[in-house]
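Order emerges. One example.
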Amino acid sequence: MSQTPVSQFRLPTFTKEGHRSMMLVGTEAIVGSTHIQLIDLNLTLFTGDETNEVETIILSPLASVNPEAGTVRGGASVRIIRDDVEITGRGWTYNHREKIVSIHSSARVVFRAQLPDILK
């Protein structure tokens, strides 16, 4: 497999029903046989239904994607944006099949939603 960088890389994925599931974008990518190395990751996650709404956006300067396993990870900073919360940190993993993001250090969470009963 060539190690030649691909500029303006885009990889959409779809559900079995044909709805957008996620859009993987990078300013530059090196595509290997099992992994994709990305610079300036912008991972947009959709609802996966006919509404085609954006659920989450994940941004990171460097990331490694394993399309077969459905995972994306990075050792650099990460910013996760949703309507109700924004999370930043360092060292992270996203599992698309399980819809789980793990942040390994320096996590900071800002809630945008009201949490009236959080201390009860």
